[in-house]
Amino acid sequence: MKRFLLLLALLPAFALAKNTTKSDYTTVPLSVGGTTVNFPLSNGYVRASVKTPEVFAVTAAAVGTQNRLIESFYTQADARRVTSGALAEDVFYAVQVFRELEGKQISAGEWAQAKPGLAAQMGSLDMNALMRDDAAGMNQRVRAVSQQDVDIVFGQMGRPMVYGTDAESIRFMMVLPVSFSTAGQTVEVKLAAAGAVLHVRNKVIFVYTYQQYHAPADLERVRQTLGTLVTRTLAVANKP
User: Fold this and answer.
1) Between helices 127-146 and 53-63, what is the axis angle to 10°?
2) Which of 21, 83, 131, 172 is the most exposed place for a label (fewest CB within 10 A)?
3) Exposed (0-12), middle (13-18) or buried (19+): which is 107, by Cβ within 10 Å?
4) Rounded to 5 degrees, what angle do the CA atoms 71, 172, 238 make?
5) Nearest Cα to Cα of residue 227 among 16, 7, 26, 8
6) Model's pTM, two decimal places?
7) DSSP state, 166?
8) Dihedral sign, CA of 44, 162, 206, 235?
9) Kind plus residue range of the DSSP H or E element containing 196
């Protein structure tokens, strides 16, 4: 159970309408431990590994050694912004997997048995301690990949708020204050973040949605976007 929780500490148009059709997105195949999991790509979004490979490499380095960033997604406009060193302005999202579990098959029964305990423990997860423990390693990895003297510092994050569980997912949200320092300049930002632990095709993956946080409505926006992504993922993940 603890190993599932470790993943939460390792990173990474606005709200989508609740009533959407297949024409609002396409699907892209993601490889998870040798298993192909189809994932919904919202119209207007691009794969970071394809359109912004340098940004994707830095993000993957920041995620940590126990996780793997499978893919991240930006709007086309934000892909241009982050490539130039600016912050994303719209909702962006990412898919991760815990490396130790990636190659394993997690049956429906195993997932059902683990899920209640995972949901119960998630709300007590000390994000500050987990990020503090990985801070030095994260900055070393990011500096090595970016070839820049970058310093990333997370502020007080509190604990994730679990707001929903169903048969195939556990959903949570929080605010992430973070500062980025490089070349003598520091940028401070808060991110509204919503995440879901999903069981698809006998794999456990994590889906995250983020955007800059200015007001409580931003948390609701990423939560709605996550809900749409989860619904779509469960609908298309098992299809050939």
Assistant:
1) 140
2) 21
3) exposed
4) 50
5) 16
6) 0.87
7) E
8) negative
9) strand 185-200
Identify the H or E element spanning 42: strand 35-42
Radius of gyration (C-alpha) of the chain in whole angstroms: 17
Strands 161-166 and 169-182: antiparallel
Beta bridge partners of 182: 185
pLDDT value, residue 1: 31
Closest listed residue to residue 95, CA positions, set 18, 218, 203, 181: 203
Are residues 191 and 211 in contact, defined by beta-carbon separation less than 8 angstroms? yes
130 pLDDT more than 90:
no
Please tell me the distance from the alpha carbon of residue 143 to that of residue 232, in angstroms, as a whole number: 36
Answer yes or no: are the C-beta atoms of 76 and 131 closer than 8 Å: no
Distance between CA atoms of 76 and 70, rounded to whole angstroms? 19
Residue whose C-alpha is closest to residue 175's, from 128, 135, 134: 128
The model's pLDDT over 37-72, given as tens digits with 9 standing for 90+, comes to 999 999 999 999 999 999 999 999 988 778 899 999
Name residue 137's amino acid: G
Strand-pairing partners, residue 206, are 96, 197
- Does residue 146 surpass a pLDDT of 90? no
Which positions ≥6 away from 216 have C-beta within 8 Å? none
Q: What is the DSSP string of 57-104?
A: HHHHHHH-SSEEEEEEEEEHHHHHHHHTTPPP-S-EEEEEEEHHHHTS
